[in-house]
Amino acid sequence: MAVVLRFVDTEGFLRERFFAIVHVTDTIAATLKKEISDVIGRYDLHINNMRGHGYDGATNMRGSWNGLQTLFLKDCSCAYYVHCSAHRLQLALIPAAEKEVSIWLFFLKLNSICNLINASPKWHGELHSVQRIEVADMVATGERDTGRGCNQIENLLRPGKTRWSSNFDSLCSMIDMYSSVITVLENMVNDGASNSIWSEASGALIMMKSFDFIFILHLMHKIMGITNLLCRVLQEKSLDILSAIDYVSTSKTLLLSLREGLDLLLSHVKEVNM
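Request: output the structure for the sequence above.
Response:
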């Protein structure tokens, strides 16, 4: 496996940035410490000059007893540890979303629908077939543009906790394939292969056609479109703290505008649900 390192030489202002890829046999903190130290020495840098280091929230990285940040602090007490900004955003967003029961239930339902279709090669293939027919019809009526990279047949993406952007990707795929998924679920109900599949498909169909599901689907798509953009910005190579603050402020403004424009979203959902 490989670890990507970014070095920033600072003397009042950011002067130089460069990257190195370190191949390691495992991700034990001691192993990472040794390999990273070797790379630092190779570039004629010194641990005692380190002033900052940042990683994700894994125990082997930020652990206060044997984590990588602790091992480096033993060599240089001035090396201030900074949690990865994008990961910190994720840690703030997930608990905030899960505190709202309706949102938590929505993602639970979304995950179960994705699992139901993707678990079977038959229905997974059926989803692709339905998409091809729908895309061809929409292109013929002018509802979709044509061109390189357009109208690709996609998979229904499952949301995950470890990477917040995967939730946004899952929402996008569900919105784009909503009618196709409905068609596949209806086929599963009509097929009635087994009582368990019939029951799951029937329940999923009822959920997907409900106003609550459609409203939260589009609401979270809007919200996470903003937060996902912020998450990507926080991972940019050239980002500095002042720019990060500006982007956070802009995201807050966009979220406030979304709150004030919920009537438009509500009208759109009512049209979809009719």
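Residues 89-273 form one domain.
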